[in-house]
Structures are given as structure tokens and as C-alpha cells.
Design a protein that fits this description.
- The protein has 25 helices and 38 strands.
- It is of the alpha+beta class.
- The strands form nine sheets. Strands 1, 2, 5, 6, 7, 8, 9, 10 and 11 form a nine-stranded mixed β-sheet that branches.
- Helix 8 crosses helix 9.
- The longest helix is centred in the C-terminal third of the chain and has 36 residues.
- The structure holds adenosine-5'-triphosphate and magnesium ion (MG).
Length: about 900
């Protein structure tokens, strides 16, 4: 059975049991400081288990993209080494939120595996929670009894708290779980060692496929357990492992999920999978990692130097390095796999197909830049490993950190290479160095906060800023903070019209007034969804009722830019194509900045076209259509763009300017109708990262000012040129004329220099066998004087030439002495010129045969000649 069919049947099976099929949440998690990537199917439903919100259906099924490379679940080191752990994998799940419980979960799981998928019932084992004394919990008899109805007792295994009690975190919903393990070994092997003995023993063919979690307790902060009011089911089955079992394979990499990728890589590297352990590992690593990287980028996480971005960069580098060392890939390679991957997931995860060019491009750039440092780093590492071998077999933390910091070698890469050389690395030392660096950067941006002072209790802070720019409000709490040595106050209001910085839009400024005194609000930001107002001071009467007033001019200018950003986004998709996706934005009262995926520089025509469309939409004066609390699925149906980071169950705000033109999810504030924007003008277009372009544009007054200024400029030029019929042509003519004039001047100068040469030649006096030339001259440029000096030297023997020249109003001296005289007379032009240069208040130097000097005093030229004559006379007449 093909894997696509397996996925389909899983979902259909539960759909037939009244489960709603929902989409996978993004693999990259935004706005959660505790978790960077989805690592289990339940992540997106956390709030339902906690009772914070209600699902639309109490039975749900899905396949969830998971990534286990950081934090509590980190399988990275295993990936490629074994055959059943991946970085990115799909977790198939069925969920009951306060609906069915253990009986149905167990029965259905068994039915699906044995009836629908026809897996051998006698090769499967179920584990149940065996109880825990410290928690005062008995074994999970209920689960045991249900299993006993289905399978013989000797295939039910009692497990410890570690394997069979699932907790979300230190506190919160938790409960016992039942895992289903399958033995995929041959009959002969199975006859030798019972599968039962290999469960949870890291055997590659006796693996866990499905985990059924029964959420029935709530762990309190003091460690005790409380019964939950409602009981839930949370299951997770590894899709790739299931495919291995159904397709009768011994490794996930032999299933049709991976074999096309493995074949592609093997062919490119001219190797065969299954012939050599080292190349096999490399093939597995690359075929696995490309999935993690491609999906992460599709979800909006570009490789970068920190946090989630750095995790992705590290995975990519791990793969590149394996390819480089074991498969001989010295040029970017990973990016060429993207089309194949996209094709594989077509119809399942459409985000890959939709962005495949962008993804390839980003990966290629990353590969290029890493390959550049890889050579250097590997050479360095070789020296280091050789040294370590001779010393104590340990690579110290400082060195590991240097490799990380300077050469971009992830820690696990260095430790891997170390292991290959039978060395170890000083992990503690490395962590210490990391810590030191972190502290260094933290210090630079240090903020320390005092405790909140609570003035009153409120249920929820009300945001009124979508409809009004002022409100009556009072202070809920405040605190003092120290930001880089500056004292500031943070204030929380019970009702606020102030928009807090988010979605690229700047925070509002304004003031609080108690009728008597005003306090300036200098910025507004969000912290854990709380709107925080920043001020340099606190009001005298903290308990007063305030008028909270937003700086409306700034807000309205910002709104122009924000709405214009939406119009721009839509226009870009029309002109450049639907691959254009928002990659970032900044909107304030001055400009709008919009980053988007696109591969080449926009042409002038494309920019013109985009501007034209946007300004057309401005003139259409389209009214704002704002909808709040729209379920995500409905927003999708409306055609909303930018569904990044949203997950099932979220409610979103949809901003529409003409439902056939621009529909976006957005929390920002907008103009009531597009006409308010007045005018939009793109002022720059450039590249910010691989495959990401940036446009900056201005609107309203600023755009008008821009055009006025440009107009004035043209008018001024026009006037200077006496208002010609064709201004451009007039300027062109001017440039051409100038070029011609320059040419003429050059030839005139040449002629002049030639004439000077004649004059000087005639002034040469033979004295005792020497040809002495000491004279004043006039030349248009210094180059002419030099040329002339060398020409005379070549033409005349025994020459002593000292010329004091007026070079376009500046005094200059040139001395040229025939080489034979330098020796016989012991003359040095460089020394001589220092003496003479005093006469023109200047200085200079040079070689024994040739020297030049410049000066400030043109009137000194005659004295140069007189003095030179005296000196040369003394030498030639001795
Ligand atoms: P294991 O002990 O094999 O690492 P686990 O206990 O970490 O598995 P769970 O957290 O219970 O697994 O996840 C549910 C299911 O997801 C597992 O039964 C397995 O089929 C699958 N799974 C877990 N981790 C991975 C992984 N790194 N790669 C592929 N599938 C995985
Ligand atoms: Mg695990």
C-alpha cells in the first residue's frame, strides 16, 4: 500500500467515527517562548486540554508535521544512525476532548492496525502503565482489561512512569498511556528471541508505532494529582514507522516515503544504498534533513544566526557536511531535491509546491556560504584533532566554540567528527564559552524590571483603538524599568486606545491627562498579550481617571502606510506572480517597508505597473471591510493571504479592501477607505536575503512632497538650460559638447607641451662637455612636464636639466640628470631638489636621476633658476 493511501485511510477511518479532519498546524511555532517547533500532535490543542478554549468538535483527527531537534524531545543525534528516528516526521492522531475514552481508543487503534491495515496481530504488543508509588497511582487496570479482551495477556507489558505516564510539563493535564509496539523481524529471528523481550530495547525492528495517551489528571504546582473534570484522548502514531510496517520493510528509509529521495541522492553521488555503512548514513541524513529544512522554510523560518533559525541552519549544515565528506558533494546539492520533495507532498502539504522555488533558492544560498567555510574549518579541525590525539584525546571547549563562532561548525558536528577520530569534546567548556558570549550580548541590551505595583483588579484589558483614538481609563498596574541605564515606567490601563507594536506596525504615542497634568506616552508594546504603555514619568495621582489620548496625526499617517502595504502586496502578486509572499514588514508614520519572496530585481516597468495598480485602488476609494473573530477556516475560504503561524481553533481578524483584490489576516489599524492614502510612491527596491526583496514606499503628504521636489528639480534644470523643447535631449547635447571640448583641450595641451620642448631644447648650453639646461617654463599639466623631461633625457647625452615650471598657476620643479653623470659627478637629483624647493615654499624628492617638487610660491621660480645656476656652475666649472 502506498504511503499516500495509508495516510488517507487513517484519516478516513476516524472520519467515519465522527472525527473532524483538521489541517496540520505549522511546524514552526511563533510567539511561544517555551517551544520553537511542534514536537507532538497535541501541541496545537494545548488550550483545549487546559480548558482555556473549546474545540469546534470534540472528536478530531489529523496528520501533524513534527520536528524533534531541540528541547525536551531531541532525536537529532540518532537520525541517520538508526532507521526509525527522524528530525521531521508526521504524527497521525485521533483526539477526544471530553468525549470517548480508553475503551474506544484501544478498540479503534487495534481495529485500524489489524483489520484496515492488516498488520499481524500476533506480532504486536501493548504496554500499560504499571503504577507509581510516589504518585500513589495503581496500575492502569482499566486499560489492561480492555487490552485483555483483544490480545493474550502475555503480550501486554506493564511499563514504568518513564515510558507510560505522559505529562505535558511540570504542571497541567497528564495521564497514563498505552503504547503499541510491533515486531518486524523475520520468523527465524522471532523464534530465537521473543519480541516481548525486545520492546523498548532500542531494537530497530521492534519499535513503538503508536502511543495512546489517556488524559485524566491535572498535576498541581505542589506535585500532587487531581482528577480532571473531563477525560481526553491524545494519540500519536509515527506515519513513517507505520508505512515501514505495512510495506513490509525493515527500515523507514526503505518505504516509498524515503526511497525516491535516497535514490535521487545515491544517483547523484554515484553510490548505491546498502553497500557501505558510511555512505548509507550520509544518504539517510540528507534524505531526512532536507524534509526538516524545506518544511521549516515553507513555514516561514529562514535559516539564521539565532533561535529557531539557527536550529534550521545547524540541521542544514549537518547534512551538507555529511554530503561533503562521505558523498563528495563539493557543490550545493540539497536544493536540487526540493522539486522532488514538493511533488511527493503535493496534495498533502501544499506549502511546499507553492514555495518550491523560494525554498530551493534559500537552501542553495545557505549551502554556498557553508561550503565556503567548510573547507577552511575542516582543515583547521584536522590540525586540532591531530593535536588532541597526541595530547589527551580531548578537544577543549574554547576550540569547539571557536569552530562554532568563526567557522559555523555546530557543536554536534564537531563532536561527531571528534567521535569519528575517537576523541571526545569538552561540552561543559563549550557551554561556558557560549554563556560568556550570551552575557556579552545581553549586557549590551540589558533591561531590568522592578515588580509590578497593582492598583486594581480587572478581568481583561480592553483595546479600543480600532474605533477610537481616546478613552477614559485608569491604571491597573505599573512598574519601573531600567533600560540601558535609563529609567522608564511601564503602565497598564484598563481600557486603552493605544495600539501596541505588532505585525510590523509601530506602537502609538500620545498622552495621559487627569485634566490637570499630562504625561507623555512615548511608546506602546505588547508583553504576553498585555498592552504596555511606556512613559518617562508617573502621574502624581495614580488613582485618577485619565483621558488616554493617542497622537492622531502619527497614527493616521501610519494607517496610510499600513493600508498601502496591503494594496502593494496584492499588486505585487498580480504583477510578479502568486509566489510573492510576505516575509516581513515595517510600517510607521514615515515609510512602509515590505519584504517579500521574489528571485530577481524588479524591472522599472514592473515597479511602474505595481505603482499604477496601487494608485488606481487608492482612487477607487475602496471602503475598509474589517471582520473580527473569524474562525481560521472561514478566513481561508475568504481567500486570506498570510496564514503563517495560525493554527486550528484560532480566531483571526480579516482586513479586506475589495474581496477580489486584497484579503489579509491582520491585527493592525487601517484607513476607513483607500482614498485617504492619497498617493503611493515606491522609493527603493533591493535585495535583503537570498530570494527576498525589499520595497520601501511613501504615501500621502510624503509622496506628494516627493513629487513636488522632483518637479522643482526639473524646473530648475529647465530654467538653467533656457527651457529647451526637449530637456533630456538638451542635457545629452550638453554632455556631448563637454566631451568634445575635453578632447580639444587635451590636444591643445599636447601641442603646447611640444612647443615648450622646442623652446627648452634651444636653451640647452654646452659647458665643458655637459649639456646644461636651466630654465623657466610654462606647461598646462604636470604630466606634460614629466613626459618632456624623459623625452629630453632620451634624446640628449650628458644632460643636466632643471626646469622651474608654472603649471597652470602652480610652481613645480623637475630635475633630470643623465645616468652616466649621476655617477661621474656624484649628483643626486632627489637631494638637489630639496634645496631648490625652498625657493617656492615647497618640498619634494625622488631618485638620483630624476626628482620633482611642488610648492606654494609661484614668484619663487626665478630664484630657483638663479640658485640652480650657481650650484651647477660650481660643479661643471671646477
Ligand atoms: P521513541 O521511544 O521511539 O523515540 P517516543 O516515545 O519518543 O518514541 P512519542 O513521543 O510517544 O514517541 O510519539 C508518538 C509516536 O511518534 C511514536 O510512537 C513514534 O511512532 C513516533 N515518533 C516519535 N519520535 C519519532 C521520530 N523522531 N521519528 C519518527 N517517528 C517518531
Ligand atoms: Mg523519543
Amino acid at each position: 500500500m502506498e504511503s499516500k493511501e495509508i495516510r488517507k485511510r487513517f484519516l478516513r477511518f476516524f472520519e467515519e467515527k465522527q472525527h473532524e479532519i483538521v489541517a496540520s498546524a505549522p511546524m514552526v511555532i511563533q510567539n511561544d517562548p517555551t517551544l520553537m517547533f511542534t514536537n507532538a500532535g497535541m501541541n496545537q490543542f494545548k488550550d483545549f486540554f487546559l480548558g482555556n478554549s473549546q474545540p469546534s468538535s470534540n472528536r478530531i483527527t489529523d496528520t501533524q508535521k513534527c520536528l524533534r531537534v531541540s528541547g525536551k524531545h531531541n532525536d537529532l543525534e540518532e537520525v541517520g544512525m538508526d532507521t526509525y528516528h527522524h528530525t521531521m516526521f508526521e504524527m497521525l492522531g485521533n483526539w477526544s476532548f471530553g468525549d470517548y475514552f480508553k475503551k474506544e481508543a484501544i478498540e479503534w487503534a487495534w481495529k485500524l492496525l489489524t483489520k484496515e491495515f492488516k498488520l499481524p496481530a500476533d506480532r504486536m504488543y501493548a504496554s500499560v502503565f504499571g503504577g507509581d508509588e510516589a504518585d500513589g497511582l495503581e496500575m492502569d487496570q482499566e486499560a489492561f482489561d480492555y487490552w485483555k479482551e483483544i490480545i493474550p495477556e502475555d503480550r501486554i507489558i506493564s511499563g514504568s512512569k518513564k515510558d507510560n505516564f505522559w505529562e505535558m510539563g511540570d504542571t497541567g493535564p497528564c495521564g497514563p498511556c498505552s503504547e503499541i509496539h510491533i515486531d518486524l523481524r523475520s520468523d527465524e529471528e522471532a523464534a530465537k528471541v521473543p519480541g516481548r523481550d525486545l520492546v523498548n530495547m532500542d531494537h530497530p525492528q521492534v519499535v513503538e508505532v503508536w502511543n495512546l495517551v489517556f488524559m485524566q489528571f491535572n498535576r498541581l504546582a505542589n506535585g500532587s494529582l487531581q482528577n480532571l473534570p473531563a477525560q481526553h484522548v491524545d494519540t500519536g502514531m509515527g506515519f513513517e514507522r507505520l508505512a515501514m510496517a505495512i510495506q513490509g520493510k525493515k527500515s523507514n528509509y526503505d518505504t516509498d516515503v524515503f526511497s525516491p529521495l535516497i535514490n535521487f541522492i545515491a544517483e547523484s553521488a554515484h553510490v548505491k544504498y546498502g553497500e557501505n555503512e558510511k555512505t548509507d548514513i550520509a544518504l539517510r541524513v540528507i534524505s531526512d534533513h532536507i524534509r526538516a529544512i524545506a518544511f521549516a522554510i515553507a513555514d516561514g523560518q529562514l535559516p539564521s544566526n539565532n533561535k529557531a533559525g539557527y536550529v534550521i541552519r545547524r540541521i542544514l549544515r549537518r547534512a551538507v557536511r555529511y554530503g561533503y565528506t562521505f558523498l563528495g558533494f563539493k557543490e550545493p546539492f540539497m536544493n536540487t531535491m526540493v522539486p522532488l520533495l514538493a511533488e511527493q507532498f503535493d496534495g498533502v502539504f501544499p506549502e511546499l509546491v507553492a514555495q518550491k522555488e523560494f525554498i530551493s533558492k534559500v537552501i542553495r544560498e545557505e549551502e554556498l556560504s557553508f561550503l565556503r567555510t567548510l573547507d577552511k574549518g575542516l582543515a583547521k579541525l584536522e590540525i586540532i584533532t591531530n593535536q588532541a590525539k597526541n595530547v589527551n584525546g580531548l578537544i577543549d571547549g574554547k576550540t569547539v566554540f571557536e569552530l562554532y563562532d568563526t567557522y559555523g561548525f555546530p557543536f554536534d558536528l564537531t563532536s561527531l567528527i571528534a567521535r569519528e577520530n575517537e576523541l571526545s569534546v569538552d561540552e561543559e567548556g563549550f557551554k561556558k564559552e557560549m554563556e560568556i558570549q550570551k552575557n556579552r550580548s545581553k549586557k549590551a541590551a540589558e533591561t531590568s524590571a522592578g515588580d509590578w505595583v497593582e492598583l486594581k483588579r480587572t478581568e481583561e484589558v480592553q483595546f479600543l483603538g480600532y474605533e477610537s483614538l481616546s478613552a477614559k481609563s485608569s491604571i491597573v498596574k505599573y512598574r519601573e524599568i531600567d533600560e540601558k541605564g535609563k529609567k522608564l515606567f511601564q503602565i497598564v490601563l484598563d481600557r486603552t486606545p493605544f495600539y501596541a507594536e505588532s505585525g510590523g506596525q509601530v506602537g502609538d504615542t500620545g498622552y495621559l491627562s487627569d485634566g490637570d497634568k499630562r504625561i507623555s506616552i512615548i511608546d506602546t508594546k505588547k508583553e504576553n498579550n498585555l498592552t504596555i504603555h511606556f512613559s518617562n514619568e508617573l502621574p502624581e495621582n495614580l488613582e485618577a481617571e485619565f483621558d488616554a489620548v493617542v497622537n492622531s496625526k502619527k497614527r493616521k499617517l501610519t494607517e496610510n502606510n499600513h493600508s498601502a502595504t496591503h494594496l502593494l502586496h496584492a499588486a505585487l502578486r498580480q504583477v510578479l506572480g502568486p509566489h510573492v509572499q510576505q516575509k516581513g514588514s515595517l510600517v510607521n508614520e514615515k515609510v512602509l517597508r515590505f519584504d517579500f519572496s521574489h528571485f530577481s530585481k524588479m524591472t522599472d516597468e514592473e515597479i511602474d505597473q505595481v505603482e499604477k495598480i496601487v494608485n488606481q485602488k487608492v482612487r477607487e476609494n475602496i471602503s475598509l471591510d474589517e471582520k473580527r473573530n473569524v474562525p481560521i477556516a472561514e478566513a481561508q475560504e475568504m481567500g486570506a493571504m498570510a496564514l503563517f503561524g495560525e493554527k486550528y481553533g484560532d480566531f483571526v481578524r480579516v482586513i479586506t479592501f475589495d474581496k477580489d483584490y486584497s484579503v489579509e489576516l491582520c491585527g493592525g489599524t487601517h484607513v476607513p477607505a483607500t482614498g485617504t492614502i492619497g498617493l503611493m510612491k515606491i522609493v527603493s527596491e533591493g535585495s535583503v536575503a537570498a530570494g527576498v526583496r525589499r520595497i520601501e514606499a511613501i504615501t500621502a503628504d510624503r509622496a506628494e512632497e516627493y513629487y513636488t521636489k522632483q518637479n522643482k528639480l526639473v524646473a530648475q534644470v529647465n530654467e538653467l538650460l533656457n527651457s529647451p523643447k526637449d530637456l533630456v535631449k538638451a542635457v545629452e547635447t550638453l554632455i556631448k559638447e563637454k566631451q568634445e571640448l575635453t578632447k580639444t583641450i587635451e590636444s591643445v595641451n599636447l601641442e603646447k607641451a611640444g612647443a615648450q620642448k622646442d623652446v627648452l631644447q634651444k636653451a640647452i648650453k654646452p659647458v665643458n662637455g655637459y649639456n646644461v639646461l636651466i630654465a623657466e617654463a610654462q606647461l598646462p599639466d604636470a604630466e606634460g612636464l614629466k613626459k618632456l623631461s624623459f623625452e629630453l633625457k632620451n634624446e640628449i647625452n650628458n644632460l643636466i636639466m632643471i626646469v622651474a615650471a608654472d603649471i597652470a598657476g602652480k610652481p613645480q620643479i623637475s630635475i633630470m640628470i643623465s645616468e652616466e653623470l649621476v655617477k661621474s659627478l656624484n649628483l643626486h637629483a632627489g637631494n638637489l631638489i630639496k634645496e631648490l624647493a625652498k625657493e617656492i615654499k615647497g618640498g619634494g624628492g625622488g631618485q638620483p636621476f630624476y626628482a620633482t617638487a611642488g610648492g606654494k610660491d609661484l614668484s619663487g621660480l626665478p630664484s630657483v633658476v638663479t640658485k640652480a645656476k650657481e650650484i651647477i656652475d660650481g660643479i661643471t666649472n671646477h
